[in-house]
């Protein structure tokens, strides 16, 4: 599972292996950085290349991307939206499923509270993945948290689907 | 010159040939459409393919894209930002220069007023390109207006740069 915390200046990417009910393992984590002194189109191409390279290398079953809201921080929201669009296209044009999770879904999944702060999310990611040190910066931890969320929610979703199928509701 | 009015549901593309001080000619115009019933990643891939195909076909010297603001219509702004990011990447990864123009710059360039309405912009595009009928829908006219704006402003910008160079200010 590849989790992506999209951003124009820092784009977190985290790969987590595992399944519901089994311990999860961090495969790799990275933060793509682009410089604000470069034109936006060039920065977006850098992000495209970085995401493409990771999809090639890790061949994820799915890509989980943070859902961006129009009401987020106005100064960065456009760049974040553009970076998330690029990440979606990188996955979708290879036929890899894309899932979007809101920040509060991610916080709730890893910490039990949709209002958890960054430190709490980082602490839980470190614990869940049994890391020897907290992943840094926060974008790296967020990307791993997205991957964890998708594995856990995906599992729950699949069980609900299976139950509905069995009950003849689908 | 390829002008792109980005959007997730309708993405206008207009190709205009010409230079400052010469009559401009419309080469082609099209509106890419994607269905709201499809997942966003799939819609963005459709836009990527459409923009790529036009860049391949018309080999523009530059691509002019409408600048999207975070304070625009909240319900569509994220999709518009994502579509504009895709259009930027399509051009930038081929090394084609990308220019962003605000809606008011475009209105001012084609109509003389930054507050012109859609009907006025369409009327002026029809006149400037000597078309027998107004381009429809508005996204098509907007894309052509972007291409016209970039040709005219690009020319002015080049003349200013040249004058500054001559005056030893650069």
Automatic annotation (TrEMBL), chains A, B:
Protein origin, superkingdom: Bacteria
Binding site for Mg(2+) 2: 66
Annotated EC: 3.1.21.10
GO biological process, any: DNA recombination
A UniProt-annotated Pfam family: RuvC
Cofactor note: Binds 2 Mg(2+) ion per subunit.
InterPro entries listed in its UniProt record: RNaseH-like_sf, RNaseH_sf, X-over_junc_endoDNase_Mg_BS, X-over_junc_endoDNase_RuvC
Cofactor(s) recorded in Swiss-Prot or TrEMBL: Mg(2+)
Cited PROSITE patterns: RUVC (PS01321)
Catalytic function, reaction form: Endonucleolytic cleavage at a junction such as a reciprocal single-stranded crossover between two homologous DNA duplexes (Holliday junction)
GO molecular function, one term: magnesium ion binding
Residue sites binding Mg(2+) 1 per the record: 5, 139
GO CC terms of this entry: cytoplasm; Holliday junction resolvase complex
Active site: 5, 66, 139
Compartment(s): Cytoplasm
Function (record text): The RuvA-RuvB-RuvC complex processes Holliday junction (HJ) DNA during genetic recombination and DNA repair. Endonuclease that resolves HJ intermediates. Cleaves cruciform DNA by making single-stranded nicks across the HJ at symmetrical positions within the homologous arms, yielding a 5'-phosphate and a 3'-hydroxyl group; requires a central core of homology in the junction. The consensus cleavage sequence is 5'-(A/T)TT(C/G)-3'. Cleavage occurs on the 3'-side of the TT dinucleotide at the point of strand exchange.
HAMAP family: RuvC (MF_00034)
NCBIfam families reported in the protein's UniProt record: ruvC
Family assignment from sequence similarity: Belongs to the RuvC family.
Protein's name in the database: Crossover junction endodeoxyribonuclease RuvC
């Amino acid at each position: 599972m590849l989790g992506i915390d999209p951003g124009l200046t820092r784009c977190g990417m985290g790969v987590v292996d595992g399944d519901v009910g089994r311990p999860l393992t961090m495969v790799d984590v990275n933060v793509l950085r682009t410089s604000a002194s470069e034109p936006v189109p060039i920065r977006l191409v850098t992000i495209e290349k970085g995401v493409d390279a990771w999809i090639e290398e890790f061949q994820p079953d799915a890509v989980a991307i943070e859902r961006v809201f129009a009401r987020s921080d106005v100064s960065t929201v456009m760049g974040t939206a553009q970076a998330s669009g690029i990440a979606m296209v990188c996955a979708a044009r290879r036929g890899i499923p894309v899932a979007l999770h809101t920040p509060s879904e991610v916080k709730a999944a890893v910490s039990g509270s949709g209002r958890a702060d960054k430190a709490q999310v980082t602490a839980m990611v470190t614990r869940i993945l049994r890391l020897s040190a907290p992943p840094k910066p926060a974008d790296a931890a967020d990307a791993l948290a997205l991957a964890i969320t998708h594995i856990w929610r995906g599992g729950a979703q699949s069980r609900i689907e299976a139950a509905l199928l069995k009950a003849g509701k689908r």
